[in-house]
Every structure is written in C-alpha cells, then in structure tokens.
Amino acid sequence: MEFRNNEAIYLQIAAYVSEKILRGAWSPGEKIPSVRDLSVELQVNPNTVMRTYEFLQSQEVILNKRGIGFFVQPDGVKKVKAYRKERFLQQDLPEFFRNIYLLDISLEDLQARYEKFKSENFKPE
Predict the structure, then answer these.
(1) Total-model pTM
(2) Among residues of the chain, what percentage have pLDDT more than 70?
(3) What region holds the HTH gntR-type domain (predicted)?
(4) What is the CATH number of the domain that holds 50?
C-alpha cells in the first residue's frame, strides 16, 4: 500500500479496510485479518493497525470479540457508506466543484465520463 503524506496512516488504513467491506471482500459478520496479519500485509507497525481498528470500532463498523478477533458489524456496510459519504461531501466535493468550475468542465461531460468509468470498472448489480 502506498501511503500519502497529507493524511494520517491509520486513516488511510481505515479507508483500505472500509473499501474491502464496501466491495464485499469482507462481509457483515465475517472475521477480518488480525492486527498482526494486517500489519504484516501492509508493512506497518501493529500499533498503527490497532489504532485503525479502534477508530473503526468507534464508528461501529467493526467489533472486537475478545479472544476471537475483529468482525464486520452486521450493519457495517451502512456505517462505512454513511461515514465516507459525509467525509466526501465535506472534504472532497468542495475541491472537486472548485476544479470543474475553474477548468470549465460541463456537467454533461462529467456525466459521460462517469458512465464510462462505471462501465469499465464495475459490473452491473
């Protein structure tokens, strides 16, 4: 995983875990990798992964079953979507709007490119 300098590593790992949940790689009720396993996979300190898991627990995305491990909450997908949507709307969207305004990109062009992106990257539901 390539980490960016402009965001805390534990939040970047939280985004990685959240994406796994949203894409269905880790389903509700399913056990997720242990702190140690994920830290080895991502080549980070286990304390960083633990901070990520604590953050995701506070967001009610995952839960810790003592002695067994961490699991995706039954409504974990809903919680991830709500958190990421709010974060996108508050942080990323204003910058996106600024750029499309400054670059004079039409909504029609955005729509066409979005549809192309979806067809090339995601299978229909």
Answers:
(1) 0.81
(2) 98
(3) 7-75
(4) 1.10.10.10
